[in-house]
Amino acid sequence: MKRSNKIYTFLFLIGIIEIASAQYKEDQWADRDTWMDVSKIFKLSNIEAGDFVADIGCHEGYLTIHIAKQVGASGKVYAVDVREDRLNKLDEHLRERKFTHVNTILGDYDNPKLPEKLLDAVVVMDTYHEMDDYMVILKHIKKSLKPDGRIVIIEKFKSRMRNKTRDEQMEAHTLSVDYVKSELEEAGFSISTEIKNFGSWENETNKKIWILVGTPNELNREPQNK
To answer: What is the chain's pLDDT, residue by residue, as a tens digit (226 residues)?
Structure first.
């Protein structure tokens, strides 16, 4: 391949990446609100004022900002991402809005670095399918939750990947609810809510949003200090 062709190919790939990540940028958030019912997510997750909530895979802060408004100044938000540039952008959004109750955390690929036994809810939206060490991460999340805390996983499933293996689905940046439900149960969570069709991602009918809400099993909870 000639050098010029290589350059054009590189620029084309960069363009695809930019398009794919557009939904995470602030100027796309209003449009995202038209197809993602955040208020219903909070109702299903029982996220209320004063709660301590983590947003794992926060990107530039679409859901983080919504959570910060929902929990208010009496609550706390822990926004986690593995990319520092995204967290830097989120910090800008927080300063513009004068939010001081949000902590940004540069996590590891196998550890979100959350405080232990403190959180009312941990939300993982459109991120679980990217996690290679998902069982290790679930263990960390479980340790971060209060005894009655919730894990909330939100994903999109592409219909063309039905009946494909887990690895094949991950490569296509999607994941079936059935795989994740089994993994949550294996990690010691009980499923309290399962919604297989929460609408269409970006209004594309071949990409259905699903939601799982889980709580730590009684037998798997560590005894609390009295």
So the answer is: 444 454 443 333 333 333 344 457 888 899 999 999 999 999 999 999 999 999 999 999 999 999 999 999 999 999 999 999 999 999 999 999 999 999 999 999 999 999 999 999 999 999 999 999 999 999 999 999 999 999 999 999 999 999 999 999 999 999 999 999 999 999 999 999 999 999 999 999 999 999 999 999 974 544 343 3
Q: Are 26 and 60 in contact (CB under 8 A)?
A: yes
* Per-position DSSP letters for 44-88, written without gaps between them: HHT--TT-EEEEET-TTSHHHHHHHHHH-TTSEEEEEES-HHHHH
User: Would the pTM count as exceeding 0.85?
Assistant: yes
Residue whose tokens read 């513009």: 96
